[in-house]
Specification:
Blueprint lengths: L4 E2 L5 E5 L4 H12 L2 E5 L3 E6 L4 E5 L13 H9 L4 E8 L2 E8 L2 E9 L10 H29 L9 E6 L1 H8 L5 H4 L2 E6 L6 H5 L2 H4 L2 E6 L2
Parallel strand pairs: 6-9, 9-10
Antiparallel strand pairs: 1-2, 2-11, 3-4, 4-5, 5-11, 6-7, 7-8
Helix pairs in contact: 1-2, 3-4
Length: about 220
């Protein structure tokens, strides 16, 4: 489980692993009192007797809760399903693409391209530097698109989702590549916050995309 982070709508966010979500909600009830539930395909909201709220975002919605099944058990079972998921991580200095079966990385490619930082110099030299940097950015993003087209597009028919992360602008530019059209409708939340994509960073991605994201608001 990750440490809590401030949430834009109030409260704090925590990431809870699928195998821990039932226990986490049980402990939430122990601290705050009995829970009432509001259930939708994308969210389970637990409101405690003292007014505390745990707003659980369902990974890979929709969630179906069978009659008689406790919401905690339904959420844990849904989150714990081993899905085939594509991942594309892009920052200007590098990229990583992979296909996961549950937490297991079964196909991947990682690469990097040099992109110089912005220059503080002025005049013609700055303009030449800017043009050079723009060329480096095009090459870097093109390499990321090539990798996604070669690795993820062929796998797209069998993917439950495509998770993206890194730098939002860079990811958005890569996904504009016409070859990646089959991936766009598969892109799902959350956006993965990662450092420069490396093999280890890619391998750690399931810790973010498989978890249940919970916004906790306490009285």
């Amino acid at each position: 489980m990750s440490p809590g982070l401030p949430a834009a709508g109030g409260g704090r966010w925590v990431n809870v692993a699928p195998e821990r979500v039932a226990g986490w909600l049980d402990r939430f009830a122990e601290r705050h009192g009995s829970l009432t539930w509001a259930i939708s395909p994308a969210t389970i909201i637990a409101t405690a007797a003292d007014g505390a709220v745990a707003d659980c975002k369902v990974p890979f919605p929709p969630l179906a809760v069978e009659p008689g099944v406790p919401p905690t058990a339904a959420l844990a079972a849904h989150a714990g399903v081993e899905r085939r998921v594509g991942v594309l991580l892009v920052r200007l200095g590098g990229y990583a693409a992979g296909v996961f079966e549950g937490e297991r990385l079964v196909a991947s490619k990682v690469g990097s391209r040099q992109v110089h930082g912005r220059s503080a110099a002025g005049g013609w030299s700055q303009q030449r530097f800017a043009r050079r940097r723009e060329g480096q950015v095009r090459v870097a993003l093109g390499a990321a698109a090539d990798t996604a087209a070669g690795l993820l597009v062929p796998a797209a028919p069998g993917l439950a989702a495509v998770m993206v992360g890194g730098e939002r602008r860079a990811v958005g530019q890569v996904l504009q590549d016409a070859r990646l059209a089959p991936l766009r409708s598969l892109v799902a939340d959350p956006f993965l916050t990662v450092p420069d994509p490396r093999r280890r960073v890619l391998e750690d991605a399931p810790a973010q995309f498989r978890c249940v994201r919970v916004r906790v608001a306490e009285p």
